[in-house]
Design a protein that fits this description.
The chain has about 325 residues and is α/β, with parallel strands linked by helices. It has a single domain, classed as Alpha-Beta Barrel (TIM Barrel). Helices cover about 40% and strands about 15% of the residues. The strands form two sheets. It has an eight-stranded parallel beta barrel with strand order 3-4-5-6-7-8-9-10. Strands 1-2 form a two-stranded antiparallel ribbon. Strand 1 and strand 2 form a beta hairpin. Helix 1 packs across helix 2 and helix 2 runs parallel beside helix 3. The longest helix is centred in the C-terminal third of the chain and has 20 residues. The protein is globular.
Length: about 325
Amino acid sequence: MEYRRLGKAGLKVSALSLGSWVTFGKQVDMTDAKELLKTGYDAGINFFDNAEGYEAGESEKIMGEAIAGLGLARDTYAVSSKVFWGGSKPTQMGLSAKHVRDACDAALIRLKVDYLDLFYCHRPDIDTPIEETVRAMHQLVLQGKVLYWGTSEWSAQEITAAHAIARQEHLTPPTMEQPQYNLLHREKVEAEFRPLYENYGMGTTIWSPLASGLLTGKYNDGIPDDSRLALPGYEWLRDIWSSEDGLHKMAKIRALGALAAELEISLTHLSVAWCLKNPNVSTVILGASKLAQLEDNLKAVDCLPLLTPEVMERIEICVDNRPAAPARWGQ
């Protein structure tokens, strides 16, 4: 396993990590969770990602119980949570100082830990001043409940504002952002965030490297009954990929699949390895509902040497979506 610094921070996280969105508490029970976590940990994964909004906290409960049951030493792994969607009542939503504190305390209980290594603002909150949120996160850091705080799906402008407030008020700034990033979704990570890496040393813990499974090729001939897109409650995701734009992307996926076959690797391995080629990616969060799926995804690291500059350029031809001002990487 390769380990990378979380941006300019001293913390080193595994290049591949394990997340629980859609899986823990929905597709994965306690027995399966322990098996997945142990397999990932034994393979070198040292970062496990979670959020209060994942299955209304049930995902965190399962992860906490599983980690405790495995007896993993606390100084050998990092675990995260996110705050935004904690419930239906006004004080259970958003990024107010109250909810930030309450969400952190609740996550600590569910995950069975004394502190969170990483704590994210799961989305920007238009109803709460950024200064209030930055100050609330700073207080959690001072209290020893959080080591690093960050954002998820914030704009570069919002993150820059958070840094400016932190500098002006002598508060702890955000360390990392958790954006979606994959071969079909590139603009924010490669272009919009470029100043954040240069000016603040921001790290990224990217999610959906396989575009919710599309970049595995398993949806090329329809939606399998046991797939994520077939799950109740995820009709919105299914609708996105059945749209005209989604069908256009499916054509790109088939072209990528042909290139992967030529390289004698799977489209999954090609897609994950491509994300890892970006030096601004601190870790690629994997999601798995089955042990065999995780074991296979872990092999993507071995494919990195195959992604030569020539192959990277052929990938560009397949996807034809290079951002207007991309960072220079993979060359």
